[in-house]
Write a structure and sequence with these properties.
The protein has five helices and nine strands. It is an alpha+beta fold and 200 residues long. The protein has one domain. Strands 1, 2, 3, 4, 5, 6, 7, 8 and 9 form a nine-stranded antiparallel sheet that branches. β3 and β4 form a beta hairpin. It is globular, with a radius of gyration of 20 Å.
Amino acid sequence: MEMLDYLHHGTRGKKFVGLLAVSPLVFIHFMKNLNYRVVEVTGRKKISDKSDYHLYEKDSSTWVYEEHDKELLNLHFLLEEQVVSTYHFMIEGGTEIRFHYGEFYIYYNKIKDIDEGMRIILRYHGFIAADKIWDYVSRYSAYYNIGELRLIDPKSITEESLDLMLASGVKRLEEGRIFCEERDEQEAKEKENDILNNLN
């Protein structure tokens, strides 16, 4: 079982939840009985293969409107036998699912659309207090280190400890934003210098 340690929740702009690191097969908890479309799936037959290729042969423009369980089971079995690198699924109603080398992102319109699936995934990864954790992190944008809450009884998790986790997660997001701005500024300066050097 993968060790899910980080949960990134963003509520500004396009709303999303990111999970690091998880099995690519977690998508199944969000697509049951819903119309969906497989946009792309890439990967390899085995780890030793050198390059990725398309694993899903169906027409990527086709929506699944019936026999959801059968189609989802077929997709699950297909991907279970592969080394999945990336995928992109669309769900009717605006939910979008992306997986990229162990990082799972689900973009949503309403939090209730992903609520049940998130609780199942947290429980599966050993979070006994899955309901308490999800009730908290689903309300605020932050990059949460939830790994420290694995196997802890809900009664042992205080509001203060959750608030500290939130504060740490907000700080991490801010540090990441500053790092990206500084990197972009440095790259812009380097490009400007290259242009000036080429003119001289």
